[in-house]
Amino acid sequence: MNVRRSAAALAAVAVIGTAAPAVAADSSPSPSPVLPSGLYGHTDPKYDGVWRQSLALLAQHTAGVRPAAKAVDWLAGQQCADGAFAAFRAEPARACDAKVMVDTNSTAAAVQALAALGGHDSATAKAVTWLKSVQNKDGGWGYTPGGPSDTNSTSVVAGALAATGLKPADVRKDGRPGGKSPYDALLKLALPCTGGDAGAGAFAYQPDKKGKLAANADATAAGVVGLLGQGLAAKPAPKAGAAAHCTDSGKATPERAAANGASYLAGAVAKNGYLTSVLPGSTDQPDYGNTADAVVALAAQGGAAQAQKPLKWLEKHSESWAKQSGPAAYAQLIFAANATGTDPRDFGGTDLVARLSATGPAPQSATSESAKAKAEDSAKDGSSGFHGWWFVAACLVAGIGIGFLFSGRKSRRQP
Predict the structure, then answer these.
(1) CA-CA distances (angstroms) from residue 260 to 75, 110, 225, 265?
(2) What is the pLDDT, as a whole number, of residue 387?
(3) Which fold would CATH assign to domain 9-23+33-242+249-404?
């Protein structure tokens, strides 16, 4: 949905990167990439360019800011002829071939951003057609076309479908009446409430090799939002309700599974107000991005009041994380503010909108030029400087699927 997003596993590693193992013996610094002028962020976009650009543009739109035309054009120009997006294409003028690794997460995030901005109906229609063409028989999606379905990828695609006016429940493999929908896939990945499991009501990222489901907070936040038919910039529940509780009684429905997932998330943040990271070397450390995702999920399911504890924690503690992690992190916090009715221009004293805008080309309409200028110095330092391969290896060592690594709600095993 991500990711989940999300922190973004990129963001989580940026904060705890010194504890992550290196992959190559050569420790010499890599040359700084020449970044496109329309791109947000200052780090190598090889693994997350489209993702972070999509989140940045969507967050600006959510905050009432009109992004720079060249930033939107850059994102639209990343699309392949068949409608799919890869994480990043250094030479977008060249036609996509078999070597271009397109993925569902980048495609779905781009759809959500371009649909919100408007004027890109042809591009989003082609992207949705491609997404439908790679839907699995169980109704879900994996990170790569044909890969096993996972909660995070299925949820971010569901958000893309909803963003283009489709009902995810009606999108079935090959259009067959008896085919499976994204909701069918997500319900299969939900843990039951009974059995005394600490993960009661949660979602798994994927079943393990033996078919067992393990609770994953990141996947749970994504699954809740996906089953509610919402996307990355989810809105709060129209009617505030009592705190969700987990129950298996009655028919398994998307609404019931979303409530069960929210119940799990509420319990996970009840003690400290945040979710913890599971990346190597980060035991017991806060996971800022996943916590932001949990805020969105809790508010989308039960209203802003249900998300107040993790929201207040983020307002107090997330500034340094976002500064170091870059545009996707600022976007996730703006989504959390949006879902709870919080002012993103005064998020714990930080103007998230100005900080985000300062990581890329100046928007066509800025809320405050002085705030933007004030943010630029700190935003220039908003680069973690990590390099992709050791990050991917670290995640694989931790047993984390590549599927949602760069979706903001990356696929991490969350106890």
Answers:
(1) 36, 29, 12, 9
(2) 33
(3) Glycosyltransferase (1.50.10)
